[in-house]
Amino acid sequence: MIMLPEIIVIVTALTVLVLDLFVKDINKVQIALAGLLSALVSIIVLPIGGELLGGQFILSPTAFWFKIIFLLSALITISISYDSLMVKTSKIFLQSSSEFLVIMLLIICGMMYLVSSTSLISLYVSLELATIPLFALAAWHKKESKSAEAALKYLFSGALASSLLLLAFSFLYGTTGTMNLSEMAVAMTFSPLQIWAFILITMGVGFKMTMVPFHFWAADVYEGAPTALASFLSVASKAAGVAVLVIFYFHVFPDLVKSLNGFLAIIATMTMTLGNLVALTQKNIKRFMAFSSISQAGYILMGFMGVESMGLVSVLFYLIVYIFSNLVIFGVIMAVSSSTGKEEISDYKGLSISNPMLAFAMMLALFSLSGIPPLSGFLGKFFLFSVAAKQGFHWLVVVAALNSTVSLYYYLGIIKEMYINKADLSESILVSAPVKWTLSLCTVVVVALGVLPQVYDLILEGF
Amino acid sequence: MLSIIQEPGLTYWLLLSTVLFSIGLYGFFTRTNAIGILISVELMLNAAAISFVSFNNFAVTGDLDGQIMTMFIIAVAAAEVVIGMAIFIQIFSKQRHLNVTKMNELSR
Amino acid sequence: MNTYGFFLTNIWLILLIPLLSFIIVGLFIGPKNKKLAGIFATTSIFVCAALAYGATFEYLSLFPLGAEHPVIVPWSVQWMPYLENLTATLGIMVDPLSLLLMMIITTVSSMVHLYSIGYMHGDPGYSRFFTVLNLFTLSMLGLVVAPNILQMFVFWELVGASSFFLIGFYYTKASAVAASKKAFIVTRFADLGFLLGILILSYEAYHLFSLEAFAHLSSYNAFDFNFLNHPEVINALSTADGALLTFALVLLFIGAAGKSAMFPLHIWLPDAMEGPTPVSALIHAATMVVAGVYLVGRLFPLFGSSEVALNVVTYVGAFTCVFAAVIACTQNDIKRVLAFSTLSQLGYMMLSLGVASPLHKLGYLASNFHLMTHAFFKALLFLGAGSIIHAVHSNDIWQMGGLRKKLPVTHITFLMATIAIAGIPPFSGFYSKDEILAAALVNNPIVFIIGLFVAALTAFYMFRIYFLSFCGEAKSDGAKQAKESSISMLIPLIFLSVLSVVSGWFPFEKFFLSEALVHNTPSWLPIVASGSGLLGVLLAYLFYFKKTTYANSVKNGFGPLHTVIQNKFYIDAVYLFVVHKIIFRFIAAPIAWIDRHIVDATMDKTAYVTKESGLVLKKIQTGNIHTYTMMFLLGGLVLFLLLLGVGF
Fold first, then answer.
1. Per-residue model confidence as pLDDT tens digits over C342-365
2. Which chain A residue is nearest to residue C641, measuring alpha carbons?
3. Kind and range of the H or E element at C77?
4. How far A103 CA sits from the closest chain C CA (Å)?
5. Which pTM value belongs to this model?
6. DSSP label at C92?
7. Of A196, A231, C432, C446, whose CA is between 20 and 30 Å from A202?
């Protein structure tokens, strides 16, 4: 029963939706977490390589790991968003939060179907399921015009991207005569129409995983949308984009991409550099995180060079590392804005005194993202860089290392605010228990993954 | 000449699709009303749908995949429009206009 | 494959526990509850000691005494693979040498922790002390269990850093700050040699992997000690380029000499007495300073292949031995005497390694034996000195006296340690010193004479302290009002004194080596050795027991020579002159100018450019949806052009 995880998630979503109608103040977060956890467990138990629905739904090793990534990101995002979902007095409380949760769960479900799909039709529909509800979620803060504006920009960018993708799909279908991805790979002739399809797919996927120059929506959306959504976007949506890219680059166009290392290198450079350079100038922390995650997409792109299984493994490992580090940061952001409602970097002044645990977790996660050993971000980047080095692109490694240095600067800027600058009045930041537990656990993982890279070996085994 | 009018081949259908897509794209660029942009998006999606159907008819004759895809496209496009309209209503209730060039509140 | 018991499979705990303790005491317990911090830190080291003893017990049950004692690596984790045979791993190596050191380090460290609970009571930096003490224990343990030279280097540096914090513990005192800086700079300077030695050695070793003949060793790593000490590797390295190998070994020895305070890099050790006395006991008697000896011992097969390197080790060790002993006779600060005594004993250990060779292993054995016995009695001497200083409130031995009645436990334990260091049977010092002299006699008679002379001097200056402090009349108010220390300070003293006696009877040879050594030692040797010790005791008795008139006249007789020796041969002044007048003015100042005006300026300009480009790029994010769309399509165009450009 290899569709078990998806079914569990759907059932959880429907349970939350229906129960919320009848029972007042249910602990929907608990239900959602229970559901996600059981889905995660069921994935680990399932046999890899199974098939369902006459070959339409498969569980390949790639799908296995991506589903784990999606479920992990959902689990952690929902846990750190506890204040948004459950605490009515919080400054970031979301109205009708159970619907928010339901939609989020269904998005995860869409992402899971996405990686298991074998045909263009199911890929397209799951991709849309994984994208369109996000537009709605971005507009959730009814009283703030920023939220609706962000959703508008997201909608339009997303609509453009999906129409480009659709056009590409039609070209692929027309020239190869099949909707099935594996058959398509076999029938690939690299005719001009197919090359054009390749470019359009890169554009469409580039939107989802914030490649430059398709990244413009990210800054506005991260800033305007509810923080719970921003954190979800930065991990799950990016992972979904990477998943689609993996499906196309590794399974449909492998020979083409193998000869396009320079192309990938240049896009990766543009993405990293622009993300890093603009992040230097940001004052709002959510916008800052948007640019930071844009630059992370650049690093992830390096793993696609050469289209080798080592590259795929390093991409998967980096995504896992990235989930934990990024969500710790967002957890701290949410804890702070939940109590104080403030979102500027300068509002983090003196956090080390008002809440030393939060500041410490934030510091570790920021160091991990910038690639400082012995934290996990360093190992993740190391593996990605070695993929590029193996393909002979040493200049790219140098550029990436320089970019990491630049990123260290702006991450240190936040740490400086927290530890060195003194706050005028120390507002006490109350952190609810679930958030505390999740943050502690994730911080431990951030450090542990850097010291014990057994997870990398585990992923490697699957390929 | 008559034969082309009576039975246009694949090329012309694809040409139609491309032209429609370009019109949609152009509309996306230039219209200032949000609903106008949404209409252009619809145009683009439908252009892709036409492309699917014409491929199915002329190039891939075995099965009906292209037409099935079109069904899905229509459904998804509708869903997108629904969300879009909901967002527009939310914006309109505050701003009383839907001019996208004036929506620039999010800082740099 | 042997199945390892509990202690050996979980040997990584011995590194994890001090690390966790360091973090927990430092971050969580220390700021809040001082008393608990001390107890927690001490308990964790006791647990480590239990682990070390358990591991030794299991090792011996696998490889009994008298049988072959191989090197095993029960735990290792690959850290970063650079290349096929060039990997950085973190691991734990278990063999008699590392087990011995693990036991010594954890035992002495746990005693010092226990002692510090009483000694550091009331000090404002109490928690900080225990935190750094734990860190130090961790780094020292990591150093001795390293299966490869890279890990050893990492922990070597960490040891240097923790010792910096501990020497400069009383950071409000300018002299303490200066001493910690001096220690760090001198050892860091020596580490340059160490690093160069590592680089040369591993570079040469790595090249061997490309040879056909070494294909069967391809599972090893260029950094592993198992690889570097492999007979085939040593053979290949010494025949290929013996001079380069010697050069690398001498560089490594420079690193060892810095840490173990051999002449002329010994200058930091006397000043390091500025730190609290438990620190001196742990670091500068028993553990850190033996790191250099350990390094040479670890690479002993390699050193054995080069006559020149061995000679360097021998003569530097011998010179330091006698040099320090002579100075120790003239010092008036009790801790300074002990510091120079440590220098001298380290000299013994080094020269013992130097006179040995892979065929005549007695020197190697004797060096490690002396390392063990010295650790115990020297730590005891320092802790006892701390007890005395605590009671009398002065370091000057001329201010003490008559403490025999007032500090009974301290007196007995101190006496036992002094007898041990003087080399009088049946205390432990006799056995280890005797073995060193035996090894020296066989291989290098000159060094033997030096060793014998120093044995006499050692007994002399140690009993000088003893007689002046404990016998006679109290010479100052502090001495008159001395009280015995608290129980937490006395227990370590008692325990260490027991060890000082019994550790000599330990079946060392069977533990260390696989085949029995052939002893050709003449039977007159033990008599002569203990005789020279007794001679020293007699001399000290005559000079210092009752009246010091003989001593004073001898001192005046030596006159200016005595002053020179008392000022440690003015070596420090020479160093200061060279550093200030020559290095600072002619080398450091121009470099500093370049750094400030050229390097910094470049960095600043680069940062400025980066920031400016950030601001420029920020402007493209206009917030206008049409811009975004335009960029989207432009992006598509760019992709297309890129595709063409890359020329697929």
1. 999 999 999 988 888 777 778 888
2. A263
3. strand C72-83
4. 26
5. 0.69
6. E
7. A231
